[in-house]
## 1
Amino acid sequence: MLISLALAAAGPLPTTDDAIFADARDPITVTASREPVSVALSGTALTIIDRTTIDALALPLVKDYLTLAPSVAISQSGPLGAQTQVRIRGAEANHTITFIDGIDVTDPASSGEFRYETLLAGGVDRIEVLRGPQSALWGSQAIGGVINILTRSDTGLYGEAQGGSLGTFRAGAGAGYASGDTSISGQASYLTSRGYDIASSGGDKDGYQNFTAHAKVATKPTENTNVSLVGRYVTSNSKFDDFDYGAGVPLDAPLATRSRQLALRAQAGVKLLDDRWSNDVSVLFTDTANINRNADVLQNRSDGGRLVFRYQSSLTAETGAARHRFTAAVEHDRERFTSADADPTALSNQSRSRLQTSLVGEYRLDVGDWLGGGVAVRRDLNNRFADTTTVRATAAVRPGGGFAVHGSFGTGVADPTFFDLYGFFPGFFVGNPGLKPERSRSWDLGAGWGNAVYGLDITYYHATLDDEIVSTFDSTTFLSGVANANGRSRRKGIEATATARPVEGLTLSASYAWLDATQQTVAAGLQLREVRRPRHSGSVTAAWTSKAFDLAASAAITGAREDTDFARFVTVRLAPYTLLTVSGAIHVTPRLDVTGRIENALDRSYQDVFAYRTPGLTVHGGVRVRL
C-alpha cells in the first residue's frame, strides 16, 4: 500500500481528517496530544505516511513524501541539497516544528527553520503531518503545524543501494536487535549527486553529499520504569551559485555550504498506580553549524543550538465508559545563536541567547470508540518577549454508519528568529530588535465517511495572523529588513482526501487542497497574496503489490502561485506543474529486490522558486535486501 487506512479490517473511517492515510496496524499518533492518542479520535487534521508508502516510492528525501499531504507546499531552490522550505496551510516556513524521534530539530542558526534538504528518507519508518496551530502543545513556531518523523525499530539487518541520473548514488543500511525489554536499532545513509548548473551559464555543476547516522536504545530496568536514548548526526555539503540582482537570475560561482547537525535525547520514566500515573523526565540537546565558503575561502558561519529540560506527569482515571487523562508538563528551553563573518568588522558578527520556561496543562476525554476530545493550555515565560498564553481544543464524534465529524480550535505564537532580530550574512540585511512575536488564531471543521474499502473526508479551515513579520526595503540605503505588519493576514482553505482498495493488492488514494492566503503589508489595509503558496494543489497515488513484484506511482500536483522577481521587485507568476514518480521492485527472492524509479516521468519543466532551474526526467535503479 502507498498510504494505508487507519481502520480495522471492517471498521469505519476514523474521524480525523486524512486519518485514512494512517497505518491500520498502529492507529496511534504521538503529536496530536502530549500523550499517545488514537488517530480515530484525535480530532485534528492529520496525515500519516507509513513505511509501506516510503518503501514503495523509494524517494531519497523526506520532503518528497510531504507533497502527498494536503496543504503542504514545498519550495526548493535548485537541485538536491538546495535550500528547501516547507509551508503548511499557507503559513511561513519557520511556522512549522519538526521532531525526529522526539527531538525538536528546528535550527536556530537557519532562521528558525529545519533544513529539509538535509533529511534523507533512509531509515524513516513513519511521517506525521499535523496541520493547524499546535503552540499549546509544542510551543513557539507551531503556527502552521507539526511534522513528526519516526525512525525504524524493526529487528534484523536491511540495506539498499541505488544509482542513476545526474551522478546520483545513495546507499543505506540498518539493524535492530531486541531481547526481553531491551531494544537497539540504528541506521546509516549516504547520498551523493553531481547535480547540474543552476545558473545555466555553462559553469560548474552544483552537487551535493550527505551522510546521516541515527541510533536509539530503549530498556525497562524494572517492570514499571523505562529509559531511552536517541542520537543523530548529519553532515552535508551542498554547492550553489550566487545571484545577480541586476539581471534577476542565478550567477555562476564556486559557493558551497557545509552543514552539521548533532541531536541527542535522554529520557527516563516511571509508572505508578497500576500504570495509571506516568512520570517522565527528559533532556534534549541539539547543535548545528552552517559554514559558507567561496572557492574554499570562508565567507561566514552560523552556529545554533538548543538545550531543553522537560518533566511531564499524566494521570488516567475512568468513570463508566469514559476515560479521563490529566497531563501537566514543565519545560525549560535555552536557545543560542552565533554568527561569525570573515570580515571582523561586519555587523553580522554576534553571539545571542534566550531562555523560556513553559507550563503546559491538558485534559483528554475519550468515551468508547465514538467520542474523543481535549483541551490544552500553555503559558510561556520568556526572558526576551512578553509572556504568552496559547490554547487548543479538539473534538471528534463517530455517530455510526461509518460517518465521522471532527473539529479543532487553536491559537499559536511564533517568536522572531535570531535572524529577524539581529540580522545575518550578508550585510545588506539589518535586523529589527523591536519585533513582536506573531500571533495566530485558527479553527477547522470536517466530516468524513468510510468503510473497509472506501473513505472520504473534507475539512474547511480559517486562520488569521496578527503582527506578521514581513520584509522591508529602504530605497535610499538599499538595506533590507523586517517589521511587524500593522494589520491582519488571513488564510482559509479546503482539504479533501479519498482512498479506495477495490481489489486485493491495489490501493488508491488522492488529496486536494484549496488555499486562499493573503499577507498584510506594513501599511495596514493593503492585502497581497502570499508567495510560493499554490491556490490549488493535490496528489494521486496508486500501488499494486504481489508476490512477484510491486509497482507504485505518485503524481504531486502544484498549481500556479506567485513569487518575487528580486531584480525588479515585482510579483511574477510561476506556472502549475505535475511531478509523476513511477517506482517498482522485482522480488528476486523473499529477501532480495531489484528496484527502479523514474522521477519527473513526464519530463516537465518547472520552477519552485523564480529563476531557479529544476531537473528534468531522471532514472534510478538498484537493489534492496532484508536479512
## 2
Amino acid sequence: MAIEAKAIADHPLDPLTGEEITAAREIIENERELDPENRYVKIVLDEPNKTEIREYEAENSSVDRQAFIIIRDRNEKATYEAVVSIDQEEVVSWEEISGAQPSVTLAEFDECEETVKDNPEWQEAASKRGVENFDLAMVDPWSVGHHLVPDDVDRNRRLAHAMSWIRTSEEDNGYARPLDGLHAWVDLDEMEVVKVLDRGTKIDDVVGELEDRKYREEDRDLRTDLKPYNVDQPEGPSWEIEGRKIEWQKWHIRVGWTQREGLVLHNIGYEDDGEVRKVIHRASAAEMNVPYGDPDPNHNWKNAGDIGEYNIGRLANPLTEGCDCLGYMHYFDAVMNDTNGEVNVLPNAICVHEEDHGTLWKHTNWRTENTEVRRKRRLVISFVATVGNYDYEFNWYFYQDGSVEPEVRLTGINSNGLVGPDEDRSPGYYEMMAPNVKGMVHQHFFNFRLDMDIDGEENVLYRRQNQPIPKGPGEQQEIEWDGQGNTTGPNPSGAAFYADKTQLKTEQEAQDLIDSLKGRYWQIENPNKTNSLDQPVGYKLAPGENVQAAAQEESSVMKRAGYIKYHLWGTPYRDDERYPAGNYPNQSPGEEGLPKWTEQDRSLDGEDIVLWYSLGVNHVDRPEDWPVLPSHHASFKLEPVNFFDENPSIDVPPEHAIKDIHERREQKYSNPDDVAADDD
C-alpha cells in the first residue's frame, strides 16, 4: 500500500507533504522576485533540532513547520538558501552561499545528455567510432570534482563531465559499448558544451567490434529448473504502522526521507518492560564516494560523491511487488519537488517487510534430549537508487535480539573502458570483463551518520579489542591487576588475554581504523544508567567487511572525501554538522566536513555523541560481474552490550506455538479491542 501526501504531517520529523511543498514555493515566490529560469534544487523539511523534539515529546508543544530550500539562479550563477515558515507563511531567512554548487538535478541529467548529443564536435568524434544514429547514444553527466578539471575550463562554472556509450537499439545495453576517449564538459547553467576532448579510439569500430551483452528477460535463455518460492503471511504482518511510525517486535521507529540521503530513520527505541528506551535519535547514510584507481587519463579523475553530488533520494526507484521485496509489504511514497518547484511523488520508494533469517537461538540438552530452537525474524526497511550505471540497495535490518544492521547491496553495471588489441592486459589497475572491455579497480565508501542516544544524551565512547599479556615464569600462577581493570602480571600458560577497554575522550582520539585481527569494535555507553548487574548500559558498533582507502593523502580524493581516511569518527552533536564531506561537495576543493570539524578536538566525555562509520568495499572486476554484477553485500551491526539484563529474544515463541498462541487469544476474547487491551 502507498501513503498519500497529507496536508498536515503527523509528527514534526515527518517529511514535507505535497501540500507543504507547494505552500513553501508559493510563500517564497510571493516575497521574492525569482527568475523563471531558476532551478529549485530542493524543498525539504528543515528538521527541528533535538531541543524542540524533546519539548514536543515531553509537553506536546507546537513545532513550527519549516521548509529548507536551495535555489540555483542560472542567470546570476548563484546559489541561495532559504528557510520558509509554512505555519507563519513567511520567509525566515534568505542567504547567498558564495561559491557553492548544489547537487546535479534530474532535469540537468536529461538536458545535459541532449546538449552533448546535439554538439557538432562531439558528433564528429562519435562518428569516428562508428556511431551513425546519435539518438541511440547514452551520455552520463559525471561530477567533475575540482582538481582534475582541464586548465582551459573555468572551474567556477557549474560543470558536468559527460561520458558516452552507444546502443544498437532502444532497449540495448549501451554500457557494453563505451565511447572511450571521448569527453565533454558541459556548463549546466548555460546548458552548453564548453569543451570536447577526443583522446582517440582504442579499437577501430566501437559499434561493430564490441559484443552484445544483453541482460533483459526477453533477451536471454532462462534456466527452467527453478520452482516457485512463495512467502505467505495469511494473517498479515507482525508490525503496526500508524502514519510514519512503525512498531515491530518491541522496536519503535519513525520513517523519514530526504532528497539527499533518501531513507532516514528517527527516534529508534526498544520497548523494555513497558518503557521505550532510546537507542538512536537519527540514522542515515549521509555520504558516498567512489574513487577509481586506474591511472588511465580517461578514468583517473572518477571520484563520484553519489549522495552529496547527486542527491541519491532523487534517484530512488519505485519498488516492484514480488521482486524487490517478498511477502506482505508496506510502502511509503517519497514526496519531493522537481526543479520547477512542483510536487513530484515517487510511489513505493520505501519498502517495509519481514524476513526469515535462520536460527535466532538454540540449545539441545543431550541428557534429556530436549531441544529449544527459535527462528530469527527481521524487519527490513529499504530503498533502492540507480546512479547512472550503478544500483545501490540500502537495507536497515532490525532484529528481535535488540540489534540493528545497516547494509548496502551493490549491483548494476560497472563503469568501464576500452583496451586496445596491443595494450598490456596484465592484471592490476583493471581486469578484462569482455573482449576489449575493461573494468577499472575502484572502491565504494558509504558514511553512516548515527546520532546515538543510549538511554539519554550523556554518552561515552570506548575502543574494545583483544589484548594479550606477556608470558611469565611458570611458578607464578596469578595475574596481577592494576586496580583499573588492566592486567600487569605474568601469563604462565601463554593463553591469557583480555578485552581491553580504552575510552576515546576527544574527537582526535576517536579517529580510528578497523583491526579485525584484534577483534576491534567500539562501544558507546551511558554512564548514568546501569543494568541489574550495575554495568553501564551500552551498544557496540561491530564492523563487518571493510577496506582502507587506497588514495594518497595529497590526492584530490582524500581532499574532497576526507571522511574515508578513518572508519570511525566521533563528534559531539551539533545541529549544523550533518554531512561528512560538507554541505556542498559538488566541485568543492574539499577539506570540509568531518576533517574540519574534528580539528577542534572537542570533548566526547559525557557528551551527546554522533558516530560516523565509513563502510568501504574494494572492487576488483571480473568477468562474472558482467554484464550485470551479482549483488555484493556489505554491512555492520549495532548490538546491545549490558543494555538488557538477559537475552531480550528469550521470549520469542517457537514456530509451532505461534499459531496456538493466536488461537487461544481468539478463543479468550470475542472483541478485538479486548485483545489489544490485554496486549497493553
## 3
Amino acid sequence: MQERAYERRGEQYLLIKSPPASGKSRALMFIALDKLHNQGLKQAIIVVPEKSIGASFGDEPLTKYGFWADWVVQPKWNLCNAPGNDNGGKVNSLGAFLDSDDKVLVCTHATFRFAVDKFGVEKFDDRLIAVDEFHHVSADPDSRLGQHLGAFIARDRAHIVAMTGSYFRGDAVPVLAPHDEAKFDTVTYTYYEQLNGYDYLKQLDIGYFFYSGSYVDDIAQVIDTEEKTIVHIPNVNSRESTKRGKTTEVSEIMGVLGSWEGKDPATGFDLVKRVDGRILRIADLVDDGPDRHAKVLASLKDPAQKNNRDHVDIIIALGMAKEGFDWIWCEHALTVGYRSSLTEIVQIIGRATRDAPGKTRARFTNLIAEPDAAEAAVTEAVNDTLKAIAASLLMEQVLAPRFNFTPKNPQSGPVEGFDYGEGGYDPNKGNVGFNEETGQFHIEIKGLAEPKSKEASRICSEDLNEVIAAFVQDKTTIERGLFDEEMIPEELTQVRMGKIIKDKYPELDEGDQEAVRQHAIAALNLTQQAKQIVLGDGEGGAGGGRDAEPAGNTALIDGVRKFAMDVRELDIDLIDRINPFGEAYAILAKTMSEESLKQVQAAISAKKTRITPEEAKVIAKRAVEFKRERGRLPSITATDPWEKHLAEGAAAFVRYKDEGRYV
C-alpha cells in the first residue's frame, strides 16, 4: 500500500482508502518528505481527529529502513501533546509555526478548524495539509472542516492528502461534494489485500449475536478469555445499558469472568482469577477517575510492553480504544449495542486487524438486544437489529476480493494473469477467473452495461463499496428486503438501488447510472450467494448465531467460483432477481426466537406503503425499457411478478401525472 501511495506522491490531491493498521501514517511520512524536499512545498500540517492519534505521527528513523530521510517532529510542534484547549494557545502556536521555517506540525481537527477560521485559507498556500480519518469531513454545510477543505480546493494552492479506513459515513452524507472529489487521485487498498499480505493474520470473522435480558448475563458466552479482547460496553443512556452505572457494569463483567483479586499497583490493571486459577489482567478504561485512568492509559501505551503479548488480556472501554488505538495482540473486538455509525464499526474492527506472531484469526462481534415481545420500545430494538445487519453485510463486502465485471459477448476473451479453473477459458460459456496475487476476480456477465465515462469507470472499479454502503443503510430497502413477503427482488435491485445511485451521482448520465447500478448489485449479490454456498444455505457463519462457526474471508473465493460455475451463464436479469438480504434473513431466523422474529416482522409490516410518486416515475421508465425489449407493454395480469409490478407502477405514474403530482 505504501509503495502504491508513494508512486502517486506528485498528485496535488491524493485520497488514500486503506484499512486500519495498513500503514497509512507511514505512507504519509514518505509522501510528505518528498513534497517538502522535492516538490517545493513549505510545510506539512498533519491533522488528526483526537490527541491520542497524534502519537502515530511521532519521530520515525526511516533511514534505518532504507529511505533517504528521517521523519522528525519537533516536540513544540506536536500540538497533540501540548497543554491547553484547541481554541486558544494551540491556535496561536499553529500561527507561529506558519511564520517559522520549521517543516512539520501535528494538531487535531479542532485546532486546525479554529486556525483556518482565524488566519484564512490563503495563509496555508504552498503547504501540505494531511487529514487523517478523512471520513470525519462532510459535504454538509454545517461541517466546518468540510467547508474549509472545499475552500482549499477552490483556491487550489495547497496540497491535500486525505486518509481513511472507511470512505462512507454513518449518516449517509457524502464526505466531499462530487466536483471536489473528482479532483482527487485515489489509492485503494482492500482488506483482502491487507490480510493476504500479512505474515500471520489470515482470517477475519464478522458476527452479530442476540441476547435477552441483561447483556452481562450472556457476555461470557461470546468472550473467550484465551483471546486478547477489547470490550466496548454500551452508553449509559442507551437501551442496552443495564442502568446500574458504567462502573457497576464493568465490575459485573469481571465477576462473570472470575473472582476479583485486586489491582496491579504498577499498571493499574484489575486482576481477575479464572476458575482454573489463571490470572487475567484487565485494563479498565471506563473508570475515568483522573489518577486511575491516567495510570492505566500510560501502561497500555508503554513502548517497552508493545511486543509483550502477556502485558494485558482484556481491555474494557466505553468511548475510547477506537480510532488509532494500537494493540497488535487484539484478537476479538466485542461491541455491546449498535454503535453510532458504520464508520465507527469499521474503526472498532480495525483494532483487531493488526498482524502479530501467532495471531492467525481475528473476529468482531456485535452483541445486540433481541426484541422483547412485551417491551414497549420494540421499534428501537428493530432499528438496532437492522443497523447491525447493515454493518455485517457491508463488512462482508469490504472483506471480499475485488470484482472486475465485463459483458459476455462474442469478442470476449481471457484476461492475462487470471486463472479460469481446470478447463481454462471457454469462449462458449461464461467465465470466472481469479488472480491470486491481486485478489481480484474477472467475471463475465451477459447483458452487463459498461460504463462510458471516466468517472463511472472509476466508481465501478474503486467505489462500489460506497454505493453498497448507501444501499444497505437505506431503512426502507433493508426493511422490505428482510420482511416484506410480497416484495419482488427487482424492486430493490432496480428501483431502490437505481434511486440511490441517481441521488449519489447526479452528474452521471442515465446509461452510466445504470452501469454503476448493475455492477454494485452484481458485487453485493455474488458475495451473498457465495457466502450462502460456503456456509451451507445460511447455517451460521460470518454474521451468524452463537453456535455458528464463521468461515474465513478467503472461503468466499471458492463460493464465488462455485456459484458462477453452477450458473455458468451469468446474466444481469438473474442477478437482479436475487434478494440481497435473503442470507441475512436466514441467519436471523436461525438465531432469534420465533416470538422475537415475529415481533420484528410485525413492526416492519405495520409501516408498509404503496408506490410513491417518485418510485412510480422510476418504474414507468423500466416499463418503457420492457416495451422496447419485448415489443409490448407489461401486463397487469402477468404471472411474472416483476412484469405485473411494472404494469402497476406505470399505471400509478399515469394517475399521479393526471393528478398534477409531477411538475
